[in-house]
Amino acid sequence: MTTLSEIEKMVELCLVPHSLPASGSDPQPATEKRPGSSSTGDASIALAAAKMRVQKLSGASPNTSQQSTTRSRQADVIPLKS
Predict the structure, then answer these.
(1) What digits encode the pLDDT tens for the residues 37-75?
(2) What end-to-end distance do the CA atoms of the chain give, in Å?
(3) What angle do CA 71, 73, 77 make, to 5 degrees?
(4) Rg (CA), the chain
């Protein structure tokens, strides 16, 4: 059987203390953009471009079949004897 104090001791042993990074620059204020950060400059431009692409792709596809040819002569039909 495990006691409550033993459980608390196990929890304390499992906790990892937070440490500072081993390398890096001084932290910048939260109001400044970090160099190299990847974010969409203007989401409305990206959204408009995506909508235009969808509209273009949702149109009818061009016909890929060759144009039908007309028959020059029909074949003679010979009925089979049953």
Answers:
(1) 555 567 788 888 888 888 888 877 777 777 776 666 777
(2) 92
(3) 115
(4) 37
